[in-house]
Amino acid sequence: MTVKLSDIQSINALKDAKLIAGKNGRNKLVDNIMVLEAPDVNKWIKKNEVLISSLYGFNHLSKEAIQEFMQSLSDNACSGLIIKISRFVDEIPQTIIDGCNKFSIPLLQIPKDTSYNSILLEVMQLLFNESNRLLDRYKKINQQFIQLAIHDSSLSKITNLLSQLVQNPTCVFQLENEQIAKITPANSKLEWLTGTDCSNRQPISKHDYTNYQYYQVNINRTDKPLIMVKIPQSQQNLYLAIVQQNSELQDIDFMAIENAVNFIQMEILKQEAINQGLRTYANDMIDDLLNGKIAPEVFKNTLANFELDSDEEYRIAVVQSLSNDSIEENYFRDNPNNADRVVGLFKRYWPKAVYRIRQNRIILIISEASFSNAECRTNLQKITDQLKETNSHHEYQIGLSEQCEPSDFKHYASQALKTLQIANQLHLSGPVFSYNDLGFYRFLLQVKDPKELTSFVPESLLELHQNDSELFLTLKAYLENNQNMKVSANTLFIHPKTMSYRLNKVHKMVNIDFSDVNQIFELNVGLRILSILDANQ
């Protein structure tokens, strides 16, 4: 409510009232008026109430009791006291006058012939009129936002309307790392807010017309704090901001702000639904492109939808996330913001990148003409580094295909994925893997049936793998550590003598000559093939 004690003073029933004390509280808000005939005020007084009393029973109270009574009025945000004299008291106790001055509670003295009823009726009428005025204003504000929603609403139009209503500039922004980013509308005069630190924002006590939690942030450009409120259910951590540039916000302005928050929320949900529909349609087309299912007669038109050219060359990149060296099967489904971040980083280097987000990986089509091979790899390394900075508990890996034309997307999408899978299974170092990084092991991509790979495994090694896992792991550790006995023993947490004993057993069973380069090469190939087969079981 916006009725003040000064408004109460102006009613006809109080024309003969005298302001005795508490002059500094004349701007206190008034929500109700009640008759007080007992000093036990704590039991029923409400915030912003004016009390009428003839001080019945107060003539028997001690000074300390009256001081306690005044403290209770202050603690409960009493807006004023109206006291009738000459019925039970001839004069207002000085302790009450002192208390009213101390707590800035206006004290009005009325003659004994002033009717309580006339005061109550006029004040209640004043409050009723104010309620009607506020209700009417709320309806008008709400109707303006409804009309906007009916006639092609947008975030820019909503913030423009709000700016007119509160007479201050407003915008919607995304909070990233506690800083203001991505301001809407894009050409807003509030672009200077970008980068503002909001980490020290302070909550604002709720107003009569607020349902949401508001915060204030001190900014250098104005002496008035920025007001911000979170948009509920927004996946992008969006806030509405009001800069008190022209005037300080009044209670009634929060009606408009609350309406704006509600309609911004609906607009975001609407746009998300539309975008989801478009994204689903686009995903279906991208899936068909990557699986070679686009009919020849619509192939070029489909490419044009994604700004791809049938005569240009591209690469396919596959991104996956690992935690504790294990692939996270549902990572991008469960962390859509991180998926968006991956895409956003790719688009810094390849603005026209076409992407498909799956639950466990992201597949991207990037232009080959944009960068050289070395530059492309450097950019991918930068992307994984930036992802690691913001999410240190996860590793990101990228598999990269060779250059290809759109007609060969199916083959090269498979190549990028298999490159990533084989590099992972072979425990190759580094977050970025291209087809050429596999070296000799590229032949593994040509084998369609994993069971056929066993033909490349020496028979003696295959028998060791099947019959004695302990000796197999001993041989594997020895070869992976360049035949260093001590390091291999440490890897297996065994004594070097135990390591030597086991290797002698391996030598007898498999008849290995560790000085034969060709035999060691065959064993290394076999070990890696068996690792891949074990991973696929």
TrEMBL record:
A Pfam family per the record: HTH_30
Cross-referenced InterPro entries: CdaR-like_regulators (IPR051448), CdaR_GGDEF (IPR041522), PucR_C-HTH_dom (IPR025736), PucR_C-HTH_sf (IPR042070), PucR_dom (IPR012914)
Domain PucR C-terminal helix-turn-helix residues, every copy: 473-529
Boundaries of every Purine catabolism PurC-like domain copy: 8-127
Domain CdaR GGDEF-like: 295-422
Domain of life: Bacteria
Family listed: Belongs to the CdaR family.
Entry protein name: Purine transport regulator
Species classification: Bacteria, Bacillati, Bacillota, Bacilli, Lactobacillales
Gene: pucR
